[in-house]
Amino acid sequence: MANLLFLLIYFVNFLQLLSSLPLPLQEHDVVLSEFIRHYEPAIYDPDAIQRSQRRLRRATTTDWSLQRLERQVEPLRINITGMQRVFKLVLYPETNLFAPDVVFETNDNRSLQFDPGKIYHGTLEDDPSALVHGLLTEAGLFDGSVTTSTTRFYIEPTTRYLSGGPRSTASSMYHTVVYSEDDVIKPPARRACASEELRRKGEIRDLRRNVRDTQDFRRNVPGADKPVRGVRRKQKVTTTPAPEKSYEELIREEQMRRD
């Protein structure tokens, strides 16, 4: 009897040790990406998350402000185990991110079905300075990031990397993975990605349009090219005041100039 009890305790300790070990990158030929050195399974219950989310959404209305929502509604709490720790997420719906009548479309103007109520923000229960952003999928999976004072963790559904490929059979082993920003290999930045190039082109286009509008105004309005007394021709616009002056001093100077 004593030997049987000893074997049982040994077996339980062995299972606990296995559960704490990091997942080998090559197990079952699963490789998330050539740029991710290490990752681990993220353990949590998606069904419990879906039940909690339904309760939370029944208690909210779209016309609440975010501050009122955080004061009156119990947050969505998710405990995710991975990377030798437990992420105790405390989440609130992002009610102010989109307008109530927002419409999502693809690049070819097709309607895209997306529920803005699945977007959340929050923090960690044991680290109030941490920032959590993400969304919940239809399957109740968390897809987002956790930013702490030391690093950033990414928590993502496994299907993002395995769906449709020859390695997709491994997706049944674990539904979500977690990895640290420190384990991401950054490729050499030879050129910007498509979205970054599109943003830059948009900025250049807006700048050229502003220049043309200014030139047209000066050509069509008599005296527009002449300097106006008391008004600077060129004025540098900044988002913050000069560091050597306080806001109160700047306000007083502005009032004196107007008087």
Automatic annotation (TrEMBL):
Annotated GO biological process: integrin-mediated signaling pathway; membrane protein ectodomain proteolysis; Notch signaling pathway
UniProt-recorded Gene Ontology molecular function terms: metalloendopeptidase activity
Listed GO CC annotations: plasma membrane
InterPro entries: ADAM_Metalloproteinase
Record's keyword terms, sorted: Integrin, Signal
Secretion signal, residue range per the UniProt entry: 1-20
Biased composition regions of type Basic and acidic residues, renumbered to the chain: 245-259
Chain residue ranges for the region called Disordered: 218-259
Record's keyword annotation contains Signal: yes
The name this protein goes by in its record: Disintegrin and metalloproteinase domain-containing protein 10
